[in-house]
Fold this sequence. Notes:
Blueprint: H1 2-53
Amino acid sequence: MTDTGNANKARNREIARNEEAKQVTGSIRVSTWAVAVVVIVGGILFTLGWLALR
């Protein structure tokens, strides 16, 4: 029974590590999209401001 319990604990730890890696990857992907959107919106606002001052 102890061997089975230890095997389950090891398996659960491996699953937790895999889930953590997926969450980190997802967070990086979301952050990248957020930065891209900010750059695009900033560029549009900058262009509109520059055109308004001309």
